[in-house]
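Quarterly update, task 2.4: nicotinamide-adenine-dinucleotide-bound model.
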Amino acid sequence: MQNPFENAKKQLELAASIAKFDHNFIERLKSPDRYVEVSIPVMMDNGKQKIFTGFRSQHNNSRGPYKGGIRYFEQVNLDEIRALSFWMTFKNAVVNIPFGGSKGGIIFDPKKVSKAELERITRGYVKKIFHLIGPEIDCPGPDVGAGSQIMDWIMDEYSRLSGKKQLAASTGKTLSNGGSNGREEATGFGGGVVLREVIAKNLISSERKTIAIQGFGNVGKFLAEAVRELGWKIVALSDSRGGVYNENGIDLSLAEAHKKKTGALRDLSDSKNISNEELLELDVDVLVPAALENVFTLENAPKVKAKMIFEMANGPTTPEADEVFYKNNKIVIPDILANSGGVATSYFEWYQNMHNEKWTTKEVLEKLEKLMSQVFADVFLVQQKYKTTFRNAAYILALERIQEKM
Ligand code: NAD
């Protein structure tokens, strides 16, 4: 298993070797400002106490309060959390919002506990990291396994402990508890805007473009909807149980209804079942990892036929696979650019909470569209200047913005 934090540092070193940055500045970014491991004692429904392990890594706050999600996952570990906090610093700088980067997690499977236990675990975690977080210090948001209900509990527990209601103590909350309109679709929608800008710059050329998407959760689904708006042909989709393929294009509404009914995509009518491995090797214009980290490795990267890899998941490409893509003339649109619409809208939520405002979905998506077009234009300028990959360009842009503040 690749160590994601080592991968993140390799990406940093590569970008720093292309544009000249101060050595001490780069070294400082190689370790988070602070990270903690906490033990969370929780009374389970059966009356017995169980100790859970949680983490919070605060990577850098030179551009604003630390900001990053919380992952509830059985295999989560400190290296993963440190890497994810590192990527948040860079993503927030690329998308140009006034936040630094952080990430947190608790080792457990949220599907294996009751709702009451889930609430006690969440509130227990907030108690343990209370002195480290807050609207203007470090603001948690959702990530794998931790959705809006959990964000509501975090905000509520933080407010309780601090003695006053503080809506901006977390983002990704339900609408009735200070959540933002448009947050649900934001990441996929933002990816769609970036894809549109990619076409406008003629970075891929065929007439009716084909696309394959791995992962059909929040991100994959809304990206697929955005792609449909662009008039592209979605030839393959997948989830954890496998994929489906139709060379004439998958009917998205049918796929959504089938997944809702059966819990999986496979056996979709008019489509052929394929494996996730097969999906990654399809001859399509654009391949979208929208599920997990470390999807592309030295083993499968040489088999990728797609012209472009559009990273909606965080960290799907290992540095070794990145090198293969570069040698094979593949364009990679990196995660910190492609999926940054999610955190941009978290910033919109935080801003609305801090200023006691409530924007409509239309207002949120209009602001997001403008922001994402600008983000792509900014990265494109750097990419043209250094004649390098989009990943390096995004890192260089982020480094310039972070350095300015440090
Ligand atoms: P999700 O849990 O809603 O969906 C994940 C999807 O991936 C599901 O369809 C699941 O079945 C599928 N999946 C899981 N294991 C798989 C496997 N081995 N092969 C193929 N598919 C598999 O999660 P999400 O919110 O859509 O997040 C997906 C990715 O996007 C993650 O890397 C996440 O960190 C990243 N991301 C999410 C957001 C956001 O706003 N939700 C923002 C930025 C980045």
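Highlight for this quarter: The first helix runs from residue 4 to 18.
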